[in-house]
Design a protein that fits this description.
- The protein is an all-alpha fold.
- α2 runs parallel beside α4 and α3 packs antiparallel against α4.
- It is 76% helix and 0% strand.
- It has 4 helices and no strands.
Length: 143
């Protein structure tokens, strides 16, 4: 059995920074849902919207989608940051962080969730790409 060793303080710095950025984004998206609930309540709107153009639904889905990916990215960032060379860890962590930021931006700037945007789609595709790459890199920390 092998043990994980810190291979680069730069890689670990990138991992912690990536976790912090995505964590802050997740909490800000949650705050935005609370804010939109208040706005919606003031005008007598539904707290359980189904209209894809509803600002509350858009806020809920942006937060929900981030909630699905950010925790696992945090784990992968730390594993890869601790056990991979900086040349592997930093681009993967930076790319995944940018992908999640782009996806959230694409969702929050949408007028409706019924239509795709290039930014939202690029963020989603990059999330999948960097997620798989980080998972593979995590396995190689054991080799």
């Amino acid at each position: 059995m092998t043990s994980l060793t810190v291979t680069s303080s730069a890689a670990l710095f990138a991992a912690v920074l990536g976790v912090a950025v995505l964590g802050a984004m997740l909490f800000l998206l949650g705050f935005n849902v609370s804010r939109m609930r208040g706005v919606t309540a003031k005008v007598g709107g539904s707290q359980m919207p189904t209209d894809p153009a509803s600002p509350l639904l858009i806020a809920q889905r942006a937060h929900g989608n981030a909630s699905e990916y950010v925790p696992y990215f945090a784990v992968l960032f730390l594993v890869v940051g601790f056990g991979s060379p900086a040349g592997v860890a930093i681009p993967l962590i930076a790319g995944a962080t940018l992908a999640r930021l782009a996806h959230a931006y694409g969702m929050l700037t949408a007028t409706t969730l019924a239509a795709e945007s290039r930014v939202r789609m690029a963020g989603a595709m990059a999330t999948y790409l960097f997620g798989v790459a980080l998972a593979v890199a995590a396995v190689f920390t054991l080799v």
